[in-house]
Structures are given as C-alpha cells and as structure tokens.
Specification:
By secondary structure, the chain is α+β, with helices and mostly antiparallel strands. 21% of the residues lie in helices and 31% in strands. A hairpin with a 5-residue loop joins strand 11 and strand 12.
Length: 385
C-alpha cells in the first residue's frame, strides 16, 4: 500500500471516529409535541390527594358552636392534629370529613400550648392520613398549598410561597423558643388547624394564624408535633352531634363572635349605667386604641343619648375598655372594667382577620353592653295564631 493511499484511509478512520464521538454526546431531539416530565404533582391532583385528610372541626358546649376550625389526619387510626385554641374551652367537639362522615366521640391526646397544637382521636378503624415532610431554610421560596375551612367555606384550596423559616421570637405575640413557617398562601378565620403542603402533597405545616395581611401567615412545622399523637388519652368528649343544631348562616367577619360574657348581676349593671367616661387601652401591638375609638364614634348618637364620652386620660375614666388578641389567632377580645373597683363588668370577643376588621364588631358588642345597662328590656309581643 502506497503512503498516499494509507494517508487517505487513516483520514477516513479519524473522521468516522470523531463523528461517532460527537453523535454519542449529542442528546436525541425532543419531539415538538412532547411535554417535559413533570417535577410537581398538578394542583388539581394535590386537591384530590390532600382533601380526604383534612377535616372540619366544630367546638362548643350545650349545643352551641363557639369555634370552628380545621384538622389534619396524621394517622390512619383516627388521630388528628388541630390548633389548640379551636377546642381549648370546649365541652363538645364534632369532627366531619369531606365524604360526609361525622364523629362526636373525641378523645383529647397530647397538647402543646406553646405551639398552639393539640392531638385528638376519633373512633374509627381507618382514615386517609397525610404524609409528613420536614422543612429547612433550603426550601424557602418553594411553592406551597393550604387546605382549610376559612369562614365556613369548607375545604378551600389556596397557593403561595414558603417565605420564611423563623423563630417565634421574631413574630409578635407568638411566644419564644420554637420555629414557625411563614407563607403567602391566603388563609382566613377558620383556617386554624389547616394543612400546608408542598408540591407533592406532603404535609409540612399546621396553620395557626396570621398577622395583619394575607402575606404574613404562619404554620407550625408538622414534623416537630407529630409526637403528640403518641401520648395517652387525657379526656373523652361526647355529644358533639348536637353542635349541628341551630346552625346559622355565616355572618360578616366583624360580626362573628364567640360567647361573650355579659354583665349579669344587678350591681354590675348599675355600675355600667352610672359610668360616663370611658378610656381605651390595649394589651397587643396588633391593635391601636384609635381603631376602636373610630368604630365607637359611629355609635355616637347612642353614646350621646346615654351621656357617655371617650376620654384620653385614664385617671378621668369611670370604665376601662381593654382590647387584646389571643396569641396567633384571629380572636380579638375586649373587657370592660370598673377603674376604681377593678371589677370586670363585661367581656367578649370577635373573630376577624386583623384589628381593623375586628374593631366594628368589638364596638358593636361594647355598645350592646352599654345598652343593656341604660335601656330597659323591651317587652316581646306574644305571637297569635
């Protein structure tokens, strides 16, 4: 073989080798109509996956509902986590599932008051539980979803971002020494106890409340409270089915209230009737006295009729009205106190997203207390058939 012929053969071999290497490194072309492989479960699938593990919780006593919230099934034998403030003062609890089953024999297991979480159990052989995943700072910015029962709109689905993992010390009114997940998915009163899930439908947080706006919402990491389910039963509650009776249509946010304790004794009524000057103080940074002052001024005609005035100096007042917020909840409370005797003359609460929305409801309840003392009850006419 001549040298020139050998050179040509070698050149062909080199070209074929290089072409083969390039072909091996080049990925196959993507078909025009072929979608990329999904990295997250579609939103509609998350709803179907998570909803059966979310329950509606009603709490109260003597057939009257005092609070309504959400719960998360974390164990197949009927163990549920919810926000402790939802059932804290209840004598009866009712748990309803999305498929229509209702349970009223409810056993209270472990309680973590600091994080506002409680584990309860209903008498059932099998329920669909949710998978739980832990969260760290590395997940900040990922898409999350909330499933809860806000304002009676049961099994509502919303989405947003995980916007922070922070200490409760940094959240006004949350307490100290534990972590909270901050997220932007919209929630409202009734969402307490709802579940925050990731893009694969795994539970990462139990919703406990929000601060002054739908972008400042908080959840307790689920992975740190699942151990409450392993504690022995502490209390068995029955008769929760009666909480279904007398159900009313949802009221406006500012009118949704718990059971207010009115001034009932004649002595207390007399003290309210004799009062002329009122001073407003606050125990929470979430409320400003001017919010309630402005709401009360909308009832100025009635206040003038009773010769009741608002004052700016506590030492001048006959009555002190104190406004507060129950930690990391949507409950805004008021109390009416005799300044000289220190006696509580009336108290109550409303449920609202923030203090601006709570103020009209608080003002309405306070005016009702004043009216009960200043105006004799009207005689109801007997109905005729």
């Amino acid at each position: 073989m001549s040298a020139s012929h050998c050179s040509k053969v070698c050149s062909v071999i080199v070209v074929l080798f290089v072409t083969g290497v390039v072909s091996a490194q080049t990925p196959p072309p993507v078909k025009p109509n072929e979608p990329p492989a999904p990295t997250f479960v579609a939103s509609i699938k998350i709803v179907k996956l998570v909803s059966p593990s979310v329950v509606l919780i009603k709490a109260g006593s003597e057939g009257n509902v005092s609070a309504q919230g959400t719960g998360i099934v974390i164990r197949e034998d009927g163990v549920i986590l919810t926000a402790y403030h939802v059932i804290k003062d209840a004598k009866q609890i009712q748990v309803a599932t999305k498929d229509g089953e209702t349970y009223d024999r409810v056993e209270v297991l472990g309680v973590d008051e600091r994080r506002d979480v409680v584990a309860i159990r209903v008498q059932v052989k099998s329920m669909q539980s949710i998978a739980v995943r832990s969260v760290s700072d590395e997940q900040i910015g990922e898409r999350v979803f909330a499933v809860s029962n806000p304002l009676g709109m049961n099994w509502t689905f919303s989405d947003g971002l995980l916007s922070g993992v922070r200490l409760a010390d940094d959240v006004p009114g949350a307490g100290k020494g534990y972590k909270l997940l901050q997220f932007t998915a919209p929630v409202s009163p009734g969402s307490s106890g709802g579940v925050l899930v990731d893009g694969e439908g795994r539970g990462i947080g139990l919703i406990v409340g929000g601060l002054n706006g739908q972008n400042l919402n908080f959840a307790v990491p689920l992975s740190v409270v699942t151990g409450l389910a392993d504690q022995p039963g502490k209390q068995l509650m029955t008769g929760g089915l009666s909480l279904s009776q007398g159900k009313k249509e949802p009221e406006k946010i500012e009118d949704r209230t718990g059971k207010a304790s009115a001034a009932v004794s004649s002595t207390r009524v007399e003290r309210v009737r004799e009062a002329r000057l009122i001073y407003i103080v606050r125990k929470t940074s979430l409320c400003k006295p001017v919010m309630l002052q402005n709401a009360l001024m909308k009832h100025s005609a009635q206040l003038d009729e009773w010769n009741v005035k608002l004052v700016d100096e506590e030492r001048l007042a006959d009555l002190i009205i104190e406004i507060d917020n129950m930690t990391l909840t949507f409950y805004y409370t008021y109390s009416i106190r005799d300044r000289r005797a220190g006696v509580i003359l009336g108290a109550g609460r409303v449920t609202a997203w923030d203090c601006n929305l709570a103020a009209p409801g608080l003002a309405k309840k306070i005016v009702e207390n004043l009216r009960a003392a200043n105006e004799p009850p009207k005689l109801k006419k007997q109905e005729t058939k």
